[in-house]
């Protein structure tokens, strides 16, 4: 028993050493990770990012995309920590990097705002930035509470989330996008789908007849292209009343607590 306890203590100490320190050479494998690092004041230490990540203030090396990073490039940068996202990066990729001897921190997936805050805090804690994270989270919560309070007096409107149109995809009950509905007193017309995202037939959307359509600018489509697609479906209330809104996919999905609060405010004013 004493031997077992000694092993547990050693493991705990090793875990603390791994993640409770300052890192000088960091690589990010996902946009949401990169944005989180910038908010935590980590920029110069971030040497490598994906082609989808924001650039930051200091020069960064591009190490490939989300699914296919350049292993040789990563090795050449000699990182002391690589940060991945369980939502954006594959498990196979993370395991390959671990086998190559790299230290990996993987951010958990967030299905709601509460999980987003917890995952952001845990990353900050691993980087010895927990106090800064607490302040960021508290400020975001205050902004969100203010919006939610104002939204409670509104009539509930239904929302169709368009997440790409090749094919037409939407958000189900397990998508983070439902957090926007929660705090703006709106309702996702596909909240009955017990998935994160799903392909949808236009006939089914016609039947559900949403009050509002909010589309992410994905599949290379701009606002004009997205609105043009919907113009032929004038029986849908959102189309008839010209309540089709296009938001940046980066703002909707590249999430930190602060970005969520900022995007939530936009949606609140779109859905009176």
How would you describe this structure in keywords?
272 residues; alpha/beta; Rossmann fold; 2 domains; five-stranded parallel beta sheet; four-stranded parallel beta sheet; 11 strands; 46% helix; globular; disordered N terminus
Summarize the structure in short:
With 272 residues, this protein is α/β, with parallel strands linked by helices.
Textual characterization of the structure:
With 272 residues, the chain is α/β, with parallel strands linked by helices. The protein has 2 domains: 20-107, 3-Layer(aba) Sandwich (Rossmann fold); 136-270, Rossmann fold. Helices cover 46% and strands 15% of the residues. It has helices at 2-19, 31-39, 71-77, 91-99, 113-126, 130-151, 178-184, 202-208, 223-230, 237-240, 249-253, 257-270; strands at 26-28, 46-49, 61-62, 81-85, 104-107, 157-162, 169-171, 186-188, 197-199, 212-216, 244-247. The strands form 3 sheets. Strands 3-2-1-4-5 form a 5-stranded parallel beta sheet, with helices on both faces. The protein has a 4-stranded parallel beta sheet with strand order 8-6-10-11, with helices on both faces. Strands 7-9 form a two-stranded antiparallel ribbon. Helix 4 links the parallel strand 4 (81-85) and strand 5 (104-107). The longest helix has 22 residues, at 130-151. Mean pLDDT is 90; it is low at 1-18.
């Amino acid at each position: 028993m004493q031997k077992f306890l000694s092993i547990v203590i050693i493991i705990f100490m090793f875990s603390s050493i791994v993640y409770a320190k300052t890192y000088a050479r960091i690589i990010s494998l996902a946009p949401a990770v990169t944005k989180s690092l910038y908010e935590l004041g980590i920029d110069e230490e971030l040497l490598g990012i994906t082609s989808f990540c924001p650039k930051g203030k200091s020069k960064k090396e591009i190490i490939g995309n989300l699914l296919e990073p350049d292993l040789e490039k990563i090795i050449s940068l000699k990182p002391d920590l690589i940060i991945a996202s369980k939502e954006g990066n594959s498990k196979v990729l993370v395991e390959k990097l671990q086998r190559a001897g790299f230290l990996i921190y993987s951010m958990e997936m967030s299905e709601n705002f509460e999980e987003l805050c917890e995952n952001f805090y845990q990353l900050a804690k691993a980087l010895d930035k927990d106090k800064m994270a607490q302040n960021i989270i508290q400020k975001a919560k205050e902004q969100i509470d203010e919006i939610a309070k104002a939204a409670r007096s509104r009539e509930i409107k239904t929302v169709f989330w368009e997440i790409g149109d090749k094919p037409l995809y939407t958000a189900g009950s397990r998508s983070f996008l439902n957090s926007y509905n929660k705090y703006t007193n709106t309702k996702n017309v596909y909240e009955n789908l017990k998935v994160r995202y799903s392909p949808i037939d236009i006939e089914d959307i016609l039947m559900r007849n949403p009050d509002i359509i909010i589309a992410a600018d994905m599949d290379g489509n701009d606002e004009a292209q997205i609105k043009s697609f919907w113009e032929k479906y004038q029986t849908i209330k959102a189309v008839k009343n010209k309540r089709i809104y296009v938001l940046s996919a980066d703002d909707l999905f590249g999430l930190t607590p602060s970005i969520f609060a900022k995007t939530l405010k936009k949606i609140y004013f779109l859905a009176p």
